[in-house]
Every structure is written in C-alpha cells, then in structure tokens.
Design brief:
- With 125 residues, the protein is of the alpha/beta class.
- The protein contains seven helices and five strands, in the order βααβααβααβαβ.
Length: 125
C-alpha cells in the first residue's frame, strides 16, 4: 500500500508526465483524507472544487484512527520545535504508519524524525 502526500498529488493533478507514468505503474495507491482536505483548501472557487472532487473520486481515502491521532500528538509534541514537523504532517505520517503503508512524498525533511515511517520518492523531478 502506498499513500500519496499532497506534493505528489499536486503533480498528478497538474498532469506532470513523470507523476502520471509512475501512478499508472503503482499498485494499491490511496490518499490520506487529510491530503484531500489540503487539496480542497487550495481551491479558489466552486468550479475548481468540483473538478478536484471529480479527479479524486476514484481514490480510496484513509483516515487516522484514534490510536494514530494519539501517536501524532506525541510525535508533534516531540518534534514540532526541534524538527519543524507540522500538525498535518504528523497526522498523515501516523496514518501511513497505522496502515503499514509507504508514504510517497518529496518532503522527506518534513518526516525524517518520525520512526517507523517508510518514505518513497516516487519519480524524478
């Protein structure tokens, strides 16, 4: 299982050819629900939002469990000052860890302090 981080989904949605090719060859891909919310937050109008929702309709969504949220709180508390981990990054990471998924991202520095998270750089930029 591979979960896609926001930066990877932005490339896919913009039609970046290496992202599209990689996604076509990837098996069992899903999205953290929080990534979808981040993407929705970037919409500037209702038309963009409808287009985004249509583009994302085929993806399975994964949400953090209560245990994942508790672990994210611990991770965030331990690393937000020293390693500059963001709130959503902690939740996304713990969601991936909780379902034993790799996280496809180019933001390894956001996640490097979190033990147990398997990161994947999906294609070249």
């Amino acid at each position: 299982m591979i979960l896609l981080d926001t930066d990877v989904m932005v490339d896919v949605l913009r039609g970046y050819e290496p992202a599209k090719q990689w996604l076509e060859s990837a098996e069992e891909v899903g999205l953290p629900g929080l990534v979808v919310m981040e993407l929705l937050q970037g919409c500037e109008n209702a038309k963009e939002q409808r287009q985004l929702e249509k583009s994302l309709a085929g993806y399975s969504l994964y949400w953090p469990s209560e245990e994942d949220c508790n672990k994210a709180l611990t991770s965030f508390s331990s690393h937000h000052l020293s390693d500059n981990i963001g709130l959503l990054d902690a939740l996304i990471a713990e969601t991936a860890i909780g379902i034993r998924a790799d996280l496809a991202t180019f933001n390894a520095r956001h996640y490097r302090a979190l033990k147990g998270l398997k990161l994947l750089q999906p294609y070249g930029r």
